[in-house]
């Protein structure tokens, strides 16, 4: 066997090793998907349990906690396999992500104990779960970012954005459960709820861009219009300022939880379909690579080419434009593009920070001018004028700056009217 043929066989074996690693990664993603799903349920139940001072969801939370622990044990076994590989195929960044999450998993028992003893607020508990799930999603993102096969990369990107959208839907469930269980939403939670709705939709749009036609069909057929209508109705109620009580006296927290859980469980079925497709794709690629290796071994070695024939065979078969496009997808070029993007993001961040500072100064001036008018016309002190402005803006669901502008506009209009009457 010639050295050239031996190198070709080695290359094919490397392809097979990489694909086997991607298949292992697909299994890890599937385990993470299941763990996140049950963890999201535990988070939502814990929120209602804390907000109701232990009166609601005690039994359900205990059940979900057991599901989370079982899924965590299964996921840990899969992740441990990576650390025991003789020749690790995973990138250093992926291994670091996993190590970071591993340390966070060790803190789960302390979080659960704090929830049991009511030594943590519903918002703080939700944030703690959010951070852990964010770390788990980062593993999926890293797997998608380092995959070498384009078809598998697309599948991982679709899964990541669907999982991210479902996590935001889970955060929306926890936020809504908290507000409805308490009987009202403050401005911060109303704002958060609207942000979560907008952001998850962007994730689902990206998922639809990378998903296979079969996955898109499953996505479109699985979402119940009736469930979505009920959720939208409750979203509208959450934006109101009144307390939310049903006729029977029970809060809407459980109704919200059940409807949003139906939606999230439906998304999970699509997620499972994607994971199944990804596993099948990996094994299909492995079979193709193995068949190519077997065929290469079975093919007799070709005789030496005529002089200069091998040099002529090195002539690129791809147009230079295609080679340039391929070069842009290389790891080196991707790193350069990431660096450029990071610099651009940093500059944009500085610009945004400057604009936010200017906006804050403009709003402060508006509020000060409005306070002066209120003090002059209502015989109020500065503190009383500020409290009046704040209460009025809250009653009308406006920011203080918008309310101040309305007062200034109204004052200017009344002044012009008085000037006309004097003439």
UniProtKB/TrEMBL annotation:
It comes from the Bacteria. SMART domains: ANTAR (SM01012). Residues 347-408 form the ANTAR domain. This is Nitrate regulatory protein. The lineage of its organism: Bacteria, Pseudomonadati, Pseudomonadota, Gammaproteobacteria, Oceanospirillales.
